[in-house]
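Model: You mentioned two targets. I'll fold them one after the other.
Researcher: Yes, keep them separate.
Model: Target one:
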Amino acid sequence: MERLRAEIGEENSELWLKPVEAMSLEDGVLLLKAPNKFFSDGIKERHQKRLLCLLREISGSDVGIDFHIERDLTRVLPPSDPVPEASPQSDFTLSDLNPRYTFETFVIGESNRLARAAAESIAKSPGTQYNPYVIYGGVGLGKTHLMHAIGNAMRRQHPKARVLYTTSEQFVNEYIGAVQNNGLETFRARYRCLDCLLIDDIQFLIAKERSEQEFFHTFNALFDSRKQIVVSSDRSPKELSPLEQRLVSRLEWGFMADIKAPDLETRIAILRKKAEIEQFSVPDDVILYVASSVKTNVRSLEGSLIRLKAFQSMTGSPLSIDEAREILKDTITADDSNPVRIETVQRIVALKYSVDVKDLKGHQRTASISLPRQVAMYLSCEMTEQSSTDIGRAFGGKDHSTVLHARKKIGKKVEEDPFFLELINKLKSDIRTAER
């Protein structure tokens, strides 16, 4: 272990080697005790080959490795394992779960089918095979709805379960308050006694060093107790670029599902479901108009429908498509009706800087090429629904970290230089015009 520690570094050693113990060496097989299957799988994937080489060097013969799993997390918890009563120190209200957000009101489409199926499985058997569960995707696509649906279903199926939904901002504020008021023990008891923690927008917690460290230890306490952890993010864990790599490693242990923008059929189904819930009769041509115009955000879809309902309730007359166009003309933007493509961003930026699009996709690093390339990457991040991985692929197979670096660098320049900000705004305007 000391030999391997020198090769893989202190942080990896703390993560993968420290929790593992040697139990016995019999018949040329070294038996290692691991806390759970995630550790044994992680060591097999990352370090077993090197461990076998080191064992051969030290012992002079081939030594195999086997694992004894202390707790197999893929095993469903037995029915006899009761949910303990909440103690007074850890009592909290459950009003933070929105009763309107359930699996029944969540519309399934190709863009969210996997995420929904995993969420439903978690609600039935929390803390088993999908732990932690990470839901990621753009704004307004249903991540929060799914998290509340998990919580509401768990409360119905496991009435004594201690379920808490919170946002990363709320977690940080509570932690700061606990530090200021000498209430860390109460804070930790509140979070570490849970049966299911649902924490929204984890990206806002990343890089807040002390809060992130506190969440890291909370995560470990819940995970080791086989309690369910569900987090949402606007991007996949590997794109978070945190100061605490340990937290991202733990998020990547579990199951990750992304939610994409819904296709037309799903958008129509969402509007019909919402109209049914709101007891609002909407003509099919109006439904089709809204679904065709608002393409990237479920929240905007539902907001458009609520606005139409308000208008009809005031006038008392049936809606026509012309009235719908007039009512929604200020809310349906050019961005909704014409989603921006990376190819358009590349073409407009290349034109502005007098370079070829192929140069933006190439590997030349001169200032005359690297700046427009970074600007195009920044605008692609800001104006399209694509992930940094997809954007990197569109720029000649660049790594997602290159895209994140460009976004950060250009973003800082925009904040510091008003003339550069004006240039970026002009480019955005030209790109939107080109997409109309």
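Model: Target two:
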Amino acid sequence: MKRILVIGGNGSGKTTFARLLSKKLNVPLIHLDKISRTDNWQRVDSDIFYNRLNEIFSTDSWIIDGNDIHTLPVRLKECDTVFYFDFNTVACLIGVIKRTIKYYGKHRDDVGGENNIEKFDKSKIAFF
């Protein structure tokens, strides 16, 4: 267990679990939202994102948490362990609401882009 994916629905607890696992195993933790996002919640160019992933894959051990359906096949080929958080929609929605309240008006350390502040607006409602 040296190359680990933590995947599942938004609000399912992936990041919380990945942080604890990273500390327990002393394995570096990489958040997909940190390497895939830039300011204003925009996605980085796909070439930049894949280059970042390839840099991670070139190392011996890592934990990657997050969702990105486009890179899942590549990440699955590179990992040796997968933790899949399969919770129902209501549980995940509650997790997202709790996270939004906890970090409201703040920047989360698991998201790239310095001005990506947790907020509740039209885009969050659309997300729900």
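Researcher: Noted. Anything on target two?
Model: The beta strands are 3-8, 29-31, 62-65, 81-85.
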